Amino acid sequence: MTFRADPNSLPSKLAKFSGIGLINTLLHTSVVVSLIELLHAHPVAANATAFIVANLFSYWANRRWNFKAAGSVQQYGRFLIVSLVGLGLTILVSSLAAWAGWHYLVGLGLVFIALPAFTFALHYKWTFRP
User: What is the torsion angle, in degrees rounded to the nearest 10, for the CA atoms of residue 88, residue 90, residue 93 and residue 95?
Assistant: First the structure.
């Protein structure tokens, strides 16, 4: 007897969200490195460009493969808001860790724990709500 997880279950959606997030991180990193190393872009411009590319990919992948939503400009607007709130949370958590005198990797670890759970919950309940 084999067990198949329901692809629409919350654990399945969370697993797909995590996989897309990993691909998205690699995409962001490759865009930054490519722009800096090949085109000699400024790191801030490279990261801003990579954010846009990665954000559009993440929206497309989550909309199509994970939440199977039709998509709209309004929906992407909600996705972008969640992404920007996530960026703010990243800055807040890493700033608090720095203020507390913790090693920067502690702050990064807290971001890696808090950010995916927070953004998944918002996307599940708000961005891609049926």
Answer: -80
